Amino acid sequence: MIKVGEYNTLKVIREAAFGVYLDDGAEGILLPKRFVPDYTKIDDELRVFIYHDGDERLIATTQKPIGTLGDIVKLRAVTVNPQGAFLDNGLMKDLFVPKSKQQQGMMPNGEYLVKIYIDEQTGRLAATERIEQFLRNDNIALNVLDEVDFTVYRRTDIGYVVIINNIHTGVLHHNEIYRAITVGDKFK
Fold first, then answer.
1. For residue 60, what pLDDT band results from cuts at 50, 70 and 90?
2. Counting runs of H as helices and runs of E as strands, what totals does the chain give?
3. What local confidence, expressed as pLDDT, does residue 56 receive?
4. SS3 breakdown of the chain: % helix, strand, coil, rounded to 5?
5. Cβ atoms within 10 A of the Cβ of 79, count?
6. Are 7 and 48 contacting, i.e. CB atoms less than 8 angstroms apart?
7. pLDDT for 67
8. In whole numbers, what is the pLDDT of the chain averaged over residues?
9. Res. 139 pLDDT band, cuts 50 70 90
10. Rounded to whole angstroms, how far apart are CA atoms 31 and 28?
């Protein structure tokens, strides 16, 4: 089963002048020629990222996106229109953030902390600044001295709210910070 917004390892099933097709259990998913590794042949398995192109077709790439499905990442806005904003995720196609999923409106070249998700209506990757709905602090499965991944979420009067392991929230107090940090920074 193909996982949109994630890496998949797929077998090459046929070649075409404009790339190769990878096995999806149906007609195949195109990996455009510019992303096909040298010496690729039929039956080779390739690790590719899957997303939708501008014509709503699934497409594969060997490019590495900045973030994948479920990630919370800081991305730069490329363009903004009345429907929403498009963020650079490191791929040929930018990631859409609907106006309704923005906190205070996005501006071109601004950087925004977003969560990548699958839009239920279109089945396409999208992003939202409204991260709180994905975070929870019930059933925290952490122990004292466990190593965790922090993403700096926002500054408060007492310190910074951080996202822990992309699931929980916590506070890093000002007196516990010994280096300059900004929203979107990630560290252990």
1. very high
2. 0, 14
3. 84
4. 5, 45, 50
5. 12
6. yes
7. 96
8. 94
9. confident
10. 9
Listed in order, strand segments (DSSP E) in 1-44 are: 7-16, 19-22, 29-32
Cβ 21 vs Cβ 31: under 8 Å: yes
The C-alpha atoms of residue 83 and residue 162 are separated, in whole angstroms, by: 29
Q: Is the pTM of this model over 0.90?
A: no
| CB 97, CB 127: distance < 8 Å | yes
- Dihedral Cα 68, 71, 73, 78, nearest 10 deg: 40
What's the pLDDT score for residue 140? 86
Phi and psi, residue 132, nearest 5°? -50, -35
Q: Is the CB of residue 63 less than 8 Å from the CB of residue 31? A: no
Q: What is the dihedral of CA 87, 90, 45, 5, to 10 degrees?
A: -20
pLDDT digits 0-9 by tens, 95-128: 999 999 999 899 999 999 999 999 988 889 999 9
Q: Which two tokens stand for residue 75?
A: 């991305």
Distances (CA, A) of 83 to 38, 99, 101, 120, 161: 40, 6, 11, 17, 29
CB atoms within 10 A of CB 130: 13
Structure token digits, residue 97: 């953030």
Alpha-carbon distances of 142 from 35, 43, 136, 148, 176, rounded to whole Å:
40, 43, 13, 9, 20
First to last CA, the chain: 33
